[in-house]
Amino acid sequence: MGEASQGGLPSRLGAVRAKAGIVIGIALRAAALFAGVFLLIGVAGQARGRTLDTSLWLLDLHAAAPGLRMAGLVVVAVLLVAWGVAPRAGRARRVATGVASGLFALLAVRDAIGFASAVAAGGVQPFVPMPLSALIALLFAALAASVASGWARGLASAWRDRLGLGVAVVAWAILFPLAQMLFFGTTDYRRPADAAVVFGARVYANGQPSELLANRIRTGVELYRAGLVPMLVMSGGDGADGVNEAVAMRAVAIAEGVPAGAVVIDGSGVNTEASVADVLRLVADGSVPLPHGALITVSQAYHLPRVQLAFAAAGIDVLTVPAHDPKLILEMPILIGREVLAFWAYDLRTCLL
After folding, report:
1. What is the reported pTM?
2. Please, what are the domains in the chain?
3. Which of 87, 92, 232 is nearest to 164 (CA)?
């Protein structure tokens, strides 16, 4: 009995390792498929004249000429999609996919080193000590190793393989914006700028801002007091309680000691896109001068990736500063979940429609 039990343990461990290998293989193939489709969507947007370069969410390739960059992205994206869908590749495709994944891993390492240098110089204040580029480098290195070894061959059952791959792709599509919120959204890029745009949120009927909004206003006021910006732009619309968010935000900022002349109101910023459009209009008519072309945006970390997307689509690269929330905000999980959907809705609409 004892000998049989001992003999069965290695067999069970082997089965567990085999199943773990299948799960990891499916996850890597799904990562390749997700990354490839994501890059193709971004290239499609650029081909249609959009200024938004979504490849920056994975790698910084701005040093390359635009035409060469787009052609390279298409080639790599097609290779990744092909391997994710059909991993049983010939030697030529396997080598090409492995080389492309390895090159992306090296470029991500370069980005991670650049980020670390910016942190060391004091220009960036990250909340998470490890940059997302480091994880992207590890992922592409794992992809390169998997492709080179021919490890991810797919499940024996075609329908199970497709189901597992689909579930894993959805998981990556959820994790990707969450990672952007955690790494990019929480990083503080504050430095001297021409103005800071504070995004609105709920204001109660008595004119008091919600805790979420109060923290945004407080952060904007801190930027003004520190001498980093000479002007605050309060952007918000009419709330459900009948109070205009921007008007209430201005009153709070003035009460905190910001001169009335240093606070500009955008009272029609009913959502992120409207706020971005209104800020562009204020810049164009001179209400918000940008002599140095530098603009800070203030919101919670979960919101800032989409804020960056919206301004980038309008041709403006902004600095993001996350509002500090000293206490737990109960509705935060709901806001984050909603923002995942909003992130993809905005990205797809901007690039494809």
Report:
1. 0.92
2. 2-185 (no CATH), 195-352 (3.40.50.620)
3. 87
Average pLDDT, the chain: 92
CB atoms within 10 A of CB 3: 7
In angstroms, the Cα distances linking 87 to 41, 130, 144, 306 are 22, 31, 13, 33
Integer CA distances (angstroms), 267 to 14, 19, 230, 239, 243, in order: 64, 56, 20, 11, 10
Distance between CA atoms of 309 and 326, rounded to whole angstroms? Answer: 26
Amino acid (one-letter) located at 116: A
Q: What residues pair up with 321 in beta bridges, in sequence order?
A: 298
* C-alpha to C-alpha distance for 175 and 322, rounded to whole angstroms: 20
What number of residues does the chain have?
353
Structure-token pair, residue 86: 């059909």
Burial class (CB in 10 A: 0-12, 13-18, 19+), 186: middle
Both tokens of 113, joined, read 């080193």
At 308, list the tokens: 């960056």
List of residues 6+ apart from 59 with CB closer than 8 A:
104, 107, 108, 111, 133, 136
Q: CA 246, CA 282: separation in Å to the nearest integer? A: 14
- The vertex-81 CA angle with 145 and 55, nearest 5°, equals 90
Q: How do residues 236-291 score in pLDDT, each as one tens digit? A: 999 888 899 999 999 999 999 999 999 999 999 999 999 999 999 999 999 999 99
The Cα 208–Cα 148 span in angstroms is 60
Within 8 A by CB and 6+ apart from 189, the residues are 123, 124, 125, 296, 319, 320, 321
280/255 Cα distance (integer angstroms): 27
